[in-house]
Amino acid sequence: HLNEIEADVLVAPLLAVERGHNILNDDAEAAIGTVYFLARPNPHPDDLSLAVHAINDWMVRATTTGTFSSWVRGARSIEEGADEVRRLARSRWYQVLARSMAWSRLGDDERATVTWDMLVLMWQVIGRLVRGGVPARVVFVDAAFAPNRAATPERPDTPESSLLHSIVDVLDPYFEGDAESAEEQFIARALYEPLRRMLTRLLTDPPRPAGTRTPHLTSH
After folding, report:
1. Exposure string (b/e) for 191-205, b if CB count within 10 Å is 16 or more?
2. In what order do the strands lie in the sheet with 34-37?
3. Is this structure's pTM higher than 0.70?
């Protein structure tokens, strides 16, 4: 058991601690109080799960926007309609497999999909730190999390340049306005309101004076 090991630091890949592992002390509280994200996570190039999620999302959007109905109704029979959907899905599948996973090359739809995957992954890890209602400290070490902020001279980051800004961007519709359904807003707010609040506070810090050293992005 980890709580029986005399060590101060645990170094592990994100997937090893993201879920299913409550690392607790003898008081049934989180044994780890700080997480350092040493590298910005990125989808593994051989992992098909992101492609599967993209196809599922593509089909859900098609059914909710009426696009799926137009595909089927435009055919002479249900069988031909099914063949057309299968053809389009196969074409979309190959497009998804061929796309680059480099952050700077992602289109808006792909970036949103990748952001949701990385958001859930990191939030699961942070969840290991707050078991028992204890406070946690989160440090984003890699400059790739907000490359413009780490540049010299410093420039504003955007969802296109920064994963952290992109996380706030994909969460905003569930907290502002009525673009999403009430049910989806309720679920997103219940799950991710603390994360959005943390990142919003972190990313809206006032700019530092010129010539000062760029610190790691840290939030509590």
Report:
1. ebeebbebbeebbee
2. 34-37, 137-140, 217-219
3. yes
